Amino acid sequence: MFHVFQYQPLRLITQNSLSSMCLKLMLSRPVAFAQIWKSWFSSHSLLGKKNIVLMGPPGAGKTTTGRIVGQKLDCPVIDIDDDVLETTWNMSVSEKLQDVGYEEFLEEEGKALLKFSASGSVISLSGSNPMHAAGMQHIKKNGIVVYLDVPTTVIMSRLKSMQMDRIVGLSPGISLKDVLQFRKQFYKRWFDIRVLCGGDVAAEVIAEKVLDAVKRYQDSELETFISTRSSRSGRSTEEDSNKFYFSDVVIQGLALDGGLFVPERGLPKFAAEEWQGLIEATYVERAQVILERCIHPADIPASRLAEIIETAYGENFSCSKVAPVRHLAGNQFLLELFHGPTASFKDFALQLMPHLFAYCIPRSCNYLILVATSGDTGSAVLDGFSRLHDTDKQRIALMNFFPEDGVSPIQKSQMIGCQKENAWSVGVKSDFDFCQTAIKQIFTNSDFTGFLTVEYGTALAAANSINWARLLPQIVYHASAYLDLVHQGIISFGSPVDICIPTGNFGNMLAAFYAKMMGIPIRKCICASNENNVLTEFIRTGVYDLRGRKLISSFSPAVDILKSSNLERYLHLIANEDGQLVTQFFNQLENQGHFQLQKDLLGKLQQDLVAGWCSDEDCLAAIHSVYSTTGYILDTHTAVAKVVADRLQDRTCPIIISSTAHYSKFAPAILRALRIAEINQNPLSQLHLLSSYSALPPIHWGLLETLKKTGNGDHQVCAADMSVLMSHIETLIQNHFM
User: Fold this and answer.
1) Whole-model pTM?
2) pLDDT, tens digit (0-9, with 9 covering 90-100), for 361-379
3) Domains within the chain, CATH numbers bracketed
4) What keywords would UniProt list here (predicted)?
């Protein structure tokens, strides 16, 4: 067996000279010595008996990076090609490949890896090692596998300049690009940590990234969450010791103090070259990279997260690009977010979130998910949780509350049609704000939640945008849209864009702002409201005022909202995480119906956000105008954003308008906008009429199938009364779990 203990090719100074230098430094500059000693001890405690295993395609820089990392950690450095394979075979790797051929080479390489053993070392694998399962299982037992993820175009350029002649799998009829793409599946299977490596990044920088990534991997304490209503300066010892991690906030949803969870140290920042490395990536690949940096592997390992993402954004979406960007006119582009199974942007979070939730929850408890929806969330959450494995459905149920008379007929038909054995819809004789407020109050009612846990072994959880796992996936499509514009040659990386989003609960807008914080060059975030324009007035004046305001039913029901829940997260951010101030704002809103920002906070807000609103008449006019000039049909929410974008953009840069739903969901309003005189009240007939227009985009496949199968169906309807809602919840628990 091949053992390595003290092989240190890059030790630059002898032990005696090191001791002499340390003694002189300690006597002359004790503070500097203490800092250096602390750094040295930290580096040596990083590995212990574990190995850092560098993995990646040929030309990724594994050998050079490994030597630098080994030097920084003062530990053994092993290159599998040079120090193991060629030593074992007594011939070069290229000679061995030529001698035995592709398949036999992989087997021989794997056998050599199985005989290899090391501890506390930095190991650079060959590019083909990950293709041998048994060998990788062996090496992974005592190693942290770091994937040096380099863009394929960069690798091809490097290999061409190196005149590499020993690429395993390369043969006549199989291109280098095909070989590299084929290998990615194996790299993704084995890595614990991914390090993005741009084309012009120095090996020294990559080595530092590796060390930082390993430190993050080993210390989940770095990534905890706090409530928007807790203040760092005012936190008690008990609060400090009761840390919340990603898994906790996914399960709990809402903080016990009524606030919303946010990352204590903020979101990760990507360097420009890291974003540039994703320009040619697919949507799924971009999602994997971004979410890996936002979800600690102690909560969900990278390999499992990759499986969840591939499941969420695979066959469930009708467009291979998942979230394509389409040119509309002039400098305006549409981010099409309606290609999921229920035809709205909510699918991006709710095809993913159920699987995250199922992975995070303990196996010893049942969970009931409570959801309030103004329209699109309902069918999306019902569909998402219905796709869980059968074993998960047995312990996870869902109840969806929606305003009985506050959604479109097709939206209601969808929610009724998407009911499954573990998921139900309940119409409430009130508006969305009541539904949302009621759920918040239920979560903070410790007597009721405690009763459910003791009596039925069932805990409550939330799947609304107040849940961090709902918000996080939305960051991805805003980043992806920008990268698509770069890939299409519309802009170069670093050039700014504006974003305009139809905004009600502020979650989608907050996700865009988070993408900006993570390094996407977004200039202006434009909030587009309908006649329920409380957000527009707030952004313009700093006064959030609900006094005398009544919800107005509009043609864009998903933004018929007066209380924007996710605004709390944004205010917490610009208030320098002053939880006491945020608590004051929202207590005042709850008790007095209004609050006002101080002048300095309003200034910060107006640097980030601008806002406008649109009437129903202008919304319908925009739909008609765009169809007449382009043949494209906007849904009513996208039309609201289009009107506001036309009014507020300065045309000095591209503007990405979020197309948040498919027009099929709002057929009566669309037919009215297209000036159809007689409109059949049957939703299926309305869709067939729209399909006769042969417009872009075509009628949504999933929506049409749902309506064909279900018709109007049955659902429960209840009064706007807290005790009635709680009774419905208890009954559902009894029927499903008992």
Assistant:
1) 0.89
2) 988 889 999 988 877 788 9
3) 51-218 (3.40.50.300), 324-340+487-710 (3.40.50.1100)
4) Amino-acid biosynthesis, Pyridoxal phosphate
